[in-house]
Amino acid sequence: MERLDQPAAAVRIDGARLWDSLMQLAHIGATPKGGVCRLALTDLDRQGRDLFVTWAKAIGCTVRVDAIGNVFARRAGRNDALPPVMTGSHIDTQPTGGKFDGNYGVLAGLEVLRTLNDNGIETDAPLEVVVWTNEEGSRFVPVMMGSGVYAGAFTLDHALAQTDHDGVSVADALRAIGYAGATPAVGEAGAVGAYFEAHIEQGPVLEAHGKTIGVVQGALGQRWYDVTLTGMEAHAGPTPMELRRDALLAAAQLIQAVNRIACEHAPHARGTVGWVDNYPNSRNVIPGRVKLSVDLRAADDATLDALDAKLRAECAALRTDGIDIAIEPVVYFPPQPFAPELVEAIRRGAQALGLSSMDAISGAGHDAVYLARVAPTAMIFVPCKDGISHNEIEDADPAHLEAGCNVLLQAMLQRAGGVA
């Protein structure tokens, strides 16, 4: 067989087939508003997994399931001893999720394999498409569970022991849906030659710039905190303004500070207060205690450390007003750069196809963040309408989805080597 120096240059995926597959999967757990509710390890999740497995076997893939329920569909290579070039994502959703988050990455990978079959293209290395378990964390925590176990971020036993609100464990749920696999759930060093993940952006940047492909440089690091501000409850009428110890007033100042310090480190810093609990939450009582969350994100640890220092300084300043403030760090995800050679493969793929592109950063967590700890990894973003995701109205242009999948095809073949 003649080797193809640019194996994907004349090969294109079937965009209509990709769209049809996405819509078929979206029927499983479809909601009245046009979204999807397919929580991890429910019977609907089983149906989605079964559909993927059926499709994968129909194109000649072998399928294995590991002990945390990750599903791997493998297309053999000419040298099957080489570590596979892998792609994938997740098919579990938020309770009010959309059709494309996660699902696109899985079915784009499947469409790449279908296209290679259609065109009689073999690869030197095997290719794999993976469905990771419980990425969303809507039913079980931690989030990104399947990829986290695979990458050694936490143990299999820890993950299997987690329970949902009804007390059902991950282990029991896997057995109930028939996806408690026998193969080891932890990937060995060098087990993956490269990992690509295609995903809708889940933000408005690509759309705002009129670009089709986001060449993702890496993922923002994250620090999450629980902050408790304690003052003194008092009657709203008899207590003069200058004698109050209003915890909610201090919390409002802190919320503004979180926004301000993130803006001071543009363009990639993020600062969010997403949850507030006000006590006693009564109309005519001065709030005596407020608990709130703080989510800080940045592209590098130096910036993340600067945000942390400024947050603590703001809290120290507020303590002078008779308010006690306790800060408890609860989550740290280090910034995760992606493999430069894979990022460049995506860039070259977009250029070869004549697609507009721009460098991007992932502000959200994805399975790729954990895979990057154990294998060369990169991501491809495509726009989503109005940047909306984790919402039933989540939408994407079929042409953009097709374009991203064609870039994925190019990048995977550049890495795996192809012959026709």
In total, the number of strands is 18
Radius of gyration, in Å, reads 24 Å
Topology pattern, helix = H, strand = E: HHEEEHEEHHHEHEEEHEEEEHEEHEHEHE
- What value does the average pLDDT take? 95
When the domains are counted, the total is 2
Strand fraction equals 15-25%
- Report the CATH topology name of the largest domain: Aminopeptidase
**Span of the ends, CA to CA:** 6 Å
CATH superfamily of the largest domain: Zn peptidases
Family: Belongs to the peptidase M20 family.
GO molecular function, one term: metal ion binding
Cofactor: Zn(2+)
Domain Peptidase M20 dimerisation: 221-316
Structure description:
This protein has about 425 residues and is an alpha+beta fold. It has two domains: about 10-220 and about 335-415, Zn peptidases (Aminopeptidase), CATH 3.40.630.10; about 220-335, Alpha-Beta Plaits, CATH 3.30.70.360. The protein has twelve helices and 18 strands. The strands form four sheets. Strands 1, 2, 3, 5, 6, 7, 15, 16 and 17 form a nine-stranded mixed beta sheet that branches. Strands 8, 10, 11, 13 and 14 form a five-stranded antiparallel beta sheet that branches. It is elongated. The chain starts with 14 loop residues before the first helix and ends with a strand. Its cofactor is Zn(2+). Keywords: Hydrolase, Metal-binding, Zinc. GO terms for molecular function: hydrolase activity, acting on carbon-nitrogen (but not peptide) bonds, in linear amidines; metal ion binding. It holds the Pfam family Peptidase_M20.
